Amino acid sequence: MDRNPEAVGLWDGMCPKEMRFVAKKWIRALPVDSENLFGRERFRRAVKDACVANAFAKMQGLDPPAPPVAQIVDARLEGQELFVVMEHGGTDLLEVMINNRPMREAKYFRELANAAAIIYHILSSIDRMHALGVLHCDLKPENIIVREGGATHLSQAKLIDFDTAESISKPPPSRRVWSGTPQYWSVNRSRGLGCARESDIW
């Protein structure tokens, strides 16, 4: 399989029919043309998250591997409602941070090990994603899910919500671009200069 995400439909919107997408998106007043849905820009934007996740899932096992993602379960269009179902990947990182002690207050080695594992998975996923030419462009605790560890394994983290993802090779915007979550914008993004590798790391 080609390592290039664009070759498996990341940016042209041509997602495989076998996509299996817990989220529901509503497309208001979208004229339903079953033969050319992916020809509509609005529809492609609505399913972009699922398309990117699906492409990464299909690239698992390659060297270098794609970042782990929540597996797509099903995608159905019922009238003007798009139902996207994905595996339950755990709790978002913000809730995990609220419900657990800070690392400096950890009382047990296991707490530190779990925190280290989460940090590793996040940084590794960003590195793998960038190596494949993809920018997330909206990284924040709510867009990282954590499956908390137990007695026999450490916590695991995955990136989700690729709605605003962009290709690294995409030309810089000719005008100011505002997308993502303002509270987590990098300096460049706050100036409307678009997304870059540094934006994901910020």
Radius of gyration (CA) equals 18 Å
Note the overall shape: globular
The number of helical runs is 6
What kind of sheet is the major sheet?
3 strands, antiparallel
- What is the H-and-E element order? EHHEEEHHEEEEHH
Q: What's the β-strand tally?
A: 8
CATH architect. name of the largest domain: Orthogonal Bundle
Straight-line N-to-C gap: 32 Å
CATH class of the largest domain: Mainly Alpha
CATH superfamily of the largest domain: Transferase(Phosphotransferase) domain 1
Strand order of the largest sheet: 1-3-2
- Mean pLDDT over the residues: 75
Strand content: 15-25%
Q: Please state the structural category.
A: alpha+beta
Number of domains: 2
The CATH topology of the largest domain turns out to be: Transferase(Phosphotransferase), domain 1
> What's the quaternary structure here?
single chain
Question: How helical, in percent, are the residues?
Answer: 25-40%
Note poorly predicted spans: 5-14, 16-30
Organism: Zooxanthella nutricula
GO molecular function: ATP binding; protein serine/threonine kinase activity
GO cellular component, one term: nucleus
Protein name: Protein kinase domain-containing protein
Task: Summarize the structure in words.
The chain has 202 residues and is α+β, with helices and mostly antiparallel strands. It folds into 2 domains: 5-86, no CATH class; 91-201, Transferase(Phosphotransferase), domain 1 (Orthogonal Bundle). The protein has helices at 41-46, 48-58, 93-99, 109-131, 187-190, 197-201; strands at residues 23-26, 72-78, 81-86, 91-92, 134-135, 144-147, 156-159, 166-167. The two termini are 32 Å apart. The relative contact order is 0.15. Residues 5-14 and 16-30 have low confidence and may be disordered.
